[in-house]
Amino acid sequence: MNSPSLSPYKEFETLEFDRPLDGVLRITLNRPDTLNSVSADMHRELVRIWPIVSEDNNCRVVLVRGAGKAFSAGGDFSLVEGSAASFDARARIFQEARDLVYNLINCRKPTVSCIRGPAVGAGLAVALLCDISIASKSSKIIDGHTRLGVAAGDHAAIIWPLLCGMAKAKYYLMLCETVKGEEAERIGLVSLCVEDAKLEEKSLEVALKLADGSATAVQWTKYTLNSWLRMAGPIFDSSAALEMLGFSGPDVLEGVASLREKRDPKFNQS
Fold first, then answer.
1. Residues 99-125: pLDDT tens digits?
2. Going edge to edge, which strands form the sheet with 118-120?
3. How are beta strands 132-136 and 192-194 bridged, if at all?
4. Which of 91, 138, 148, 196 could link 255 by a cystine bridge, Cβ 3.0 to 4.6 Å?
5. How many CB atoms lie within 10 A of CB 3?
6. Are 186 and 267 in contact (CB under 8 A)?
7. 243: left (phi over 0), alpha (psi -120 to 50) or beta
8. What pLDDT digit, counting tens, does each position of 64-104 carry?
């Protein structure tokens, strides 16, 4: 039997698509030379993909992963610097960031993330907003925002307190500490943590189990549970706006410079 067409996805350039199992659409963030950092193009494509997935009758579940050794290293420097330099860029990114989060939350199809290596910033938003998140033991989850000099705005305020509790959310988001895979599972930040060699196999196993289930039962359960996230929408909107405000200040420039120079940042303390 011929595999269903991937023609609905032919216009995407930074995302790669395949159908590894019946009913499973796999999306691969495909910039491995930059650890799948989120460029302006990828950011736009991560906004647009979810409504298309919702209407794909050949897709019953979505599996998201990164190419190569990482899920995603977060927003690339050019995206950050562009936001810092231009009001128009900040306004565009603010709208895209909101649409990315809400489009993923409202995607009708269940979603599974396969998290290997670093998962940071805008890429991490996709990983943790998926319905089921599966991390390898070597994965490194870092929100990244306060280290950059801006508020945690991509997704963190809307979901971290629900996943791991307010005390852990404040600790990891305010201090920008790394959460390893096993710790992420222990505190409830991810659904499962598995050995690195088993990550792809387990992710496909979970995706197939979802695909073989009752589509309406699974989709309506997802919709109901995501009402918790919709209720937190004003919290997320505020965090995204404050992140954009931070892009207009001096700290983000020091944050980017320190990352480029591989040193600790020296933020203005006044």
1. 999 999 999 999 999 999 999 999 999
2. 118-120, 140-142, 179-180
3. parallel
4. 148
5. 10
6. no
7. alpha
8. 999 999 999 998 888 889 899 999 999 999 999 999 999 99
